[in-house]
Amino acid sequence: MAATPEGTLRFVQAQPAARRANYRQTSTGLWFSSVGLGTYLGEPDDATDEAYQQALTRAVGLGCNLIDCAINYRFQRSERTVGMWLAEAMRNGLVRREEIVVATKGGFVPFDGSMPREPNKWVYQTFIASGQAHAVEFCANYQHCIAPAFLEQMIGWSLRNLGIDMIDIYFLHNPETQRISLSHETFRARMLDAFETLEQAVLDRKIASYGTATWTAYRALTDTPDYLSLTELVGLAHEVAGGNNHFKYVELPYNVFMTEAFALENQQVGDDFLSAIAAAEALGLTVMTSAPLMQGRLANPIMPQLAERLTGLDTDAQRAIQFVRSSPGVTSALVGMKQTDHIAENLALMDVPAAESEIIRRLFAGE
Questions:
Q1: Rounded CA gap, 133 and 72, in Å?
Q2: Residues 217-245: what's their mean pLDDT?
Q3: Considering the entire predicted model, what is its pTM?
């Protein structure tokens, strides 16, 4: 079982009338809430696990049906917490599996429950000595790998952690980590291998679609080592699987201070240079954004002009999220939330219309 267009639409239709306009359909037909729940923040401990489980229940009750995690978040504990919550929520009839979109990521080494005393030794024993990966396939001091056997193992571990049969969206996590360390040709070859692995995982019904979750890659200047071209990556997916490839999603940071994803025209599509968000849209990719609150720093009165333009909201956190989810081309703003009061504050937006696109454009124009 996995999220389906029909199941996610049923979730939307079950919401109060005022809330239904705050869902967007994606390139794979799924319906997302315009605010999703991220699980990056927090300590790797039982108290944080419990906080996330309560937060997930509260978030779904307020209309959120998109959950984002990664196998390395809190040393696999975030995935495991989502898995425990989802199993209980389905048992109790709170949700059906086909209504909830689960996204996760692979690429960074995921330590098991806590940081080992000797991280590099753990990596060697777990992956290299066992034959799951070669030493030369790692980057960033043995912390990042996208080799086929490694990715296959990561997908298997994530399925087990999440307790599900199929991952709805599987992201390659910060592939620019590889690009920084490699020649362009070597990086290109590794991405082709990774995409082939992910296409096979789709055929094996382990994942439904895939994408890239990045930090700097799509926001960097074109002559910097971490820059990635969306057009090139889409081309690689076409090389692997043609027009029926399953590279459908992009995740990248975007907020009122980190505006490059919307404002920096560094992505070439045909003869045009576009922003990363506009390029993704032109290439048929769905955009999810991370860090709308910069880990809480934007939940303060940093930009008074937002209150003047984004009216009808109560808090600076709401205005910061409203800015992101209302920007043209953004499907969902992923917010790290594990406290129920923050859930209530942030997801109050699900009952409020998004701002008009022209308001966001005027903010960028300084009008």
A1: 17
A2: 97
A3: 0.96
